Amino acid sequence: MDSRGGPYLNTRALCSPLGAVRLCQLTMGCAVIAMVTHSAGYSGSHGVFCMAAWCFCFAMSVLVFFLDATRLYSCLPISWDNLTVTCAAFATLIYLTASVVYPLFFVRSECPYAGCDVRDFRIAVTVCSILCTLAYGAEVALCRARPGQTVVGYMATVSGLLKVVQGFVACIIFGALASGSEYSRYGATIYCVVVYAFCFALTALMVIMTLCGRTKAVCCMSFDRFVVVCTLLEVLLYLSASVVWPVFCFDTKYGSPGRPSSCPHGKCPWDSKVVVAVFSFVNFGLYVADLIYSQKLRFVSSHVPTNSRL
């Protein structure tokens, strides 16, 4: 055997700040799932969402840690640095959502359970979920490109991270649209849905191109210029949708400016319309910020060793 090649395992995956953060993610994620299945419990659509979010992020973290520790990521036709920071940013948002939804629907100040064990377990689940959210956020902070650095991993830049947030907000909009929003009543609201879908697809395309390393010339343009052109188009489209949707949902000619008194809580189309309107403005702001940051972006397409930042 040849012992001159160094250890087979990637020691930086364990003995580095990034490795410590990922171990914390695995520990907290495992604790959350164990406590929920043991005694805390979950029920209904909100509980299923939280459990699915925790399980998905835990499985993703196990896979990332294993591939990094064994260096098997080098066998994959992807940009590893871009993939890991994208997964961390996405997991941060999912965990943040679950950390808000679970205590909101399952934690009560009173103690209706025998011995308060269930309540205590649910509080512990919430605490561990918040700690795991911070761990994923710490990974994003460790991997994020610093000012003045030559940008190699686009997803590590502010613009790249904003792409992840934009896609997450779009998923919230799609969820609200599917929850009885009555968007098919008018052609104008159907146009808004088309805008949301088109912008989401365009954002996903840019993320996929980055993960696959397709960051050279695109349609006779450099990748950074391509990003700016696409982002400007998304800003204009979201601006139109952010104006059209409230008019055709809350103007007295087309809808109701206030919540109908006969509308049942949890199943009211008016509530879904409000969610779509609010997050349309949120995503519009995110695209504007993305456009501003993209002006300063100069992307260099080259391969660098993984975890070279640490």
Defining key terms:
310 residues, mainly alpha, 8 helices
Could you describe the 3D structure shown?
- With 310 residues, this protein is an all-alpha fold.
- It is 66% helix and 0% strand.
- The protein has 8 helices and no strands.
- The longest helix has 28 residues, at 223-250.
- The protein is flat.
- Mean pLDDT is 84; it is low at 301-310.
Write the layout of secondary structure elements.
Elements: H1 17-40, H2 44-70, H3 80-106, H4 117-143, H5 158-178, H6 187-211, H7 223-250, H8 269-294
User: Major sheet: size, sense and barrel closure?
Assistant: none
Briefly note the structural class of the backbone.
mainly alpha
Low-confidence stretches are: 301-310
Taking all Cα atoms into account, the compactness measure Rg is 22 Å
Share in β-strands: under 5%
End-to-end span in angstroms? 30 Å
Q: Helical residue percent?
A: 55-70%
The SSE string, one letter per element, is: HHHHHHHH
Oligomeric form of this entry? single chain
- Overall mean pLDDT: 84
Can you describe this structure in just a few lines?
It is built from eight helices and no strands. By secondary structure, the protein is mainly alpha-helical.
